Amino acid sequence: MQYRIAVIKGDGIGPEITDEAIKVLNVIGKKYGHTFEFQEVLAGGVALDKFGIPLPDETVEICKASDSVLLGAVGGPKWDTLPGHLRPERALLGLRSALGLYANLRPAVLYPALADACPLKPEVVGKGLDIMVVRELTGGIYFGERGRRQTENGEEAYDTEAYSVMEVNRIGRVAFEAARKRGKKLVSIDKANVLESSRLWREEIHRLAAEYPDVTCTDMLVDNAAMQLVRNPGQFDVIVTSNMFGDILSDEASMITGSIGMLPSASLGDSVEGKNTLGMYEPIHGSAPDIAGQNKANPIATILSVAMMLRYSFGLETEALAIENAVNAVLDQGLRTGDIAAKGDTVVGTVEMGEAIAKAIV
Ligand code: IPM
Ligand code: MG
């Protein structure tokens, strides 16, 4: 099969890590008889420098016309003082919205070889950790009405959290389906003791729960969830939550695995016959400008993101597993980039790590 992939390398370490992921995809292509065609497009800081805007129309058009999108990372100190609508992060929000990618899957897995990197006590973590965070990605306070106005107390700024039944229903379905394929346990996280939008969220999740009697679904308030994640992370299988809560809790979940440099993500829209028509795949970490261009970044999160691409957008489960197994094999061999190295480990660079994984694909 032939697949067209739009590549947004972005800023900071973005280009280095996407190069390694492309290397791995090309090896998969050769071994399994697929052709991956890559088209590079600009977004984020590099687009600001070249066109004066973070997300050119051409980028959106090319992404829409592709089978899938691979993204490195956007942003950096150079563009931090620009007004909101010109920040590199706008490119991410614009792409999510323009491509209709309302479901963000963020798996947080503790790799046995990296157990020491987990900041929690071994007795707290227990048998390991494998959580799938399903974050709503195109609604809520990120996209609600916002602005500034004059009041008798001077200037005031506001952002609005709004969720429709339709929005909760479609993200809920993604989460229930995910839970069905895993441990059949879903926790829906909200703030229904305070927020009306959370009360509607909860009502719709309960309606859906009746359609998925094989999945055990419970509600949890977000403050309690933040605590439970560090108190007893093993209780979670799949989590579903709003855009903002998902942003925060997925960073927390990732830290429990000890290695934000390891965690991939998939942003998906509607699926047709079980396959997602278009998805955007990216590491959950940022552009790490402090180590950019130094061959220090960990490419594993991006490499695992292309494994998710193969699985969710192309339905190539065997090929996805081949990448995940190669990552495990290389970690078992003891290869470490700086971020996941313990005292005494030999540290390898971005390129060495990417090449070792590419070579370990069988
Ligand atoms: C993420 C990031 C983004 C978000 C930022 C960069 C806009 O933190 O993908 O988690 O808040 O969604
Ligand atoms: Mg975030």
Bound ligands: 3-isopropylmalic acid, magnesium ion
**Number of helical runs?**
12
CATH superfamily of the largest domain: Isopropylmalate Dehydrogenase
Q: In percent terms, what proportion of residues is strand?
A: 15-25%
Low-pLDDT parts are none
Label the overall shape: globular
Distance between the termini: 19 Å
Q: Provide the CATH topology of the largest domain.
A: Isopropylmalate Dehydrogenase
> Which series of helices and strands comes N to C?
EHEHHEHEHEEEHEHEHEHEEEEHHH
Strand order in the largest sheet = 2-1-3-14-11-4-5-10-8-9
Give the total of beta strands: 14
Radius of gyration: 20 Å
What CATH first level of the largest domain would be assigned?
Answer: Alpha Beta
Detailed description of the structure:
There is one protein chain. This protein has 362 residues and is an alpha/beta fold. The chain folds into 2 domains: 1-111 and 260-362, Isopropylmalate Dehydrogenase; 119-131 and 139-256, Isopropylmalate Dehydrogenase. Helix content is 40%, strand content 21%. Bound molecules: 3-isopropylmalic acid and magnesium ion. The site of magnesium ion has 2 residues, from helix 9.
Q: Secondary structure elements and their pairing?
A:
Layout: E1 2-10, H1 14-32, E2 35-40, H2 45-51, H3 57-64, E3 68-73, H4 89-98, E4 103-109, H5 122-125, E5 130-136, E6 146-151, E7 154-159, H6 165-181, E8 185-190, H7 196-211, E9 216-221, H8 222-231, E10 238-241, H9 243-256, E11 264-268, E12 271-272, E13 275-276, E14 279-283, H10 300-312, H11 317-332, H12 350-359
Parallel strand pairs: 1-2, 1-3, 3-14, 5-10, 8-9, 8-10
Antiparallel strand pairs: 4-5, 4-11, 6-7, 11-14, 12-13
Helix pairs in contact: 1-10, 1-12, 6-7, 8-9, 10-11, 11-12
3-isopropylmalic acid binds at residues 89, 92, 247.
